[in-house]
Amino acid sequence: MAIEVKVPMLPESVADATVATWHKKPGDRVERDENLVDIETDKVMLEVPAPQAGVLKEIVRASGSVVKASELLAVIDASASTSSAPAEKSAASAAPAAKSTATVVATNDTSTGPAARRAAHEHAVDPATVSGSGKEGRVTKQDILSHAQQNKAQPASATSTATIPVLTGERLEQRVPMTRLRKRIAERLLEAQQTAAILTTFNEVDLKPISDIRKQYQEQFVKKHGIKLGFMSFFIKASVEALKRFPVVNASIDGDDVVYHGYFDIGVAVSTERGLVVPILRNADQMSLADIEKQVALFGEKAKKGQLSIEEMTGGTFTVSNGGVFGSLMSTPIINPPQSGILGMHKMQDRPVAVDGQVVIRPMMYIAMSYDHRIIDGKESVTFLKTIKEFLEEPTRLLLDL
Q: Which residues share a beta bridge with 175?
């Protein structure tokens, strides 16, 4: 009995998707609900499970193909044994994949994990050519990255379908198509620059009060909540309180109208190997410090595994981005349309500052706020950022709602 595997229904905001990586090949045995293929949209990677156990008879849409909802991806023979799938089908099905310039033939789930498969797809590496260092010879993400690094220093094979090498003298260039996510990021950033009047204002924060709180209560916090108390939760809390006082920063432009949002959905910028994603903390004003820390940690884990849903990255009224984790001392973050503001955190450094007429060493951080000058004036932006600074330097005000 032939079972059709189709592209799942896509969200309204997503018109089509790209077949990223097949984890099975024709003739392979598949189990019900086992992931067959990854489908990449503009925002997330979707997994397509097998609707029924059987043998993968045919791959209809090869890696690199652009597909729409309900299109046929593959056919499973539910009544066949592993050996019954003809070898010629395997060859015929694999042939279309050679047309793609970003195709990597992946091994099945027993030899590579999700992180390794995604790394193989992004770095144009065939896992079958990589020696696994993991348990029972499993190919790990690091194995893929090491293999890709070695290949950069060697001339590419003429049979490679993942990149198009161009030799110029003794130097090698490789042309690799952008992923859908990277193209979407490029479009969004360009849109922000072209449609909004973006300006940035700066300030600096003395983080000693928060550092003292973390040092004093970290052990108790972890024991009670099962997660460490970080800086991000304080910055998000401070942002929410400042947004309450400056509603226009929490607003957005829709045509000739300004839409004031009566809720506080805070985007948290998360960097992944595939690119920057911004999952949303819904109703952040109703969340405790522990709730925020747990949700941000969960977003980070899901982002690394490519498991964030469209719903988790849709909407948002304001964004907080932490470039300090990469060592950035100062930057001008770009707003995430249709939002009107974004707060940029940076690296915390011990610096000499004047306190009550004395020079002391304090953990200082530069903070930046980029804003849409079409609806936010300079006075509002500067005062808004100053309010965040004051909350962070007197964090007890956050707890006392002052």
A: 164
Q: Give the 3-state secondary structure percentages of the chain, helix then strand then coil, rounded to 5.
A: 35, 25, 40
Identify the active-site residue in 33, 212, 350, 377. Answer: 377
Of 302, 250, 246, nearest to 278 by C-alpha is 302
Closest CA to 339 of 251, 266, 279, 259: 251
Torsion of CA 236, 274, 371, 292, to 10 degrees: -10
Q: Which two tokens stand for residue 4?
A: 């059709």
Query: How far is residue 363's CA from residue 351's CA, in Å, rounded to a whole number?
Result: 6
Q: How far apart are CA 346 and CA 353, in angstroms?
A: 18
Instruction: Mark 235-265 as b/e (b = at least 16 C-beta within 10 Å).
Output: bbbbbbbbbeebebbbbbbeeeeeeebeebb
Q: What is the C-alpha separation between 392 and 402, in angstroms, rounded? A: 13
Burial 37-52 (b: 16+ CB within 10 A, else e): bbbbbbbbbbbbebbe
| Catalytic residue list contains 225 | no
Instruction: Determine the Cα–Cα distance for residues 39 and 47; give it in Å rounded to an integer.
Output: 6
144-202 tens-digit pLDDT: 777 777 665 544 433 334 455 555 556 788 887 777 777 777 877 788 888 888 999 99
The reply to whether the predicted model has a pTM over 0.70 is no
User: Which of 280, 271, 266, 370 has the alpha carbon at shortest distance from 325?
Assistant: 271
Domains of the chain and CATH, by start: 1-100 (2.40.50.100), 108-177 (4.10.320.10), 181-400 (3.30.559.10)
Active site residue 147: no
Which residue among 147, 212, 373, 401 is the active-site one?
Answer: 373
Amino acid at 17: A
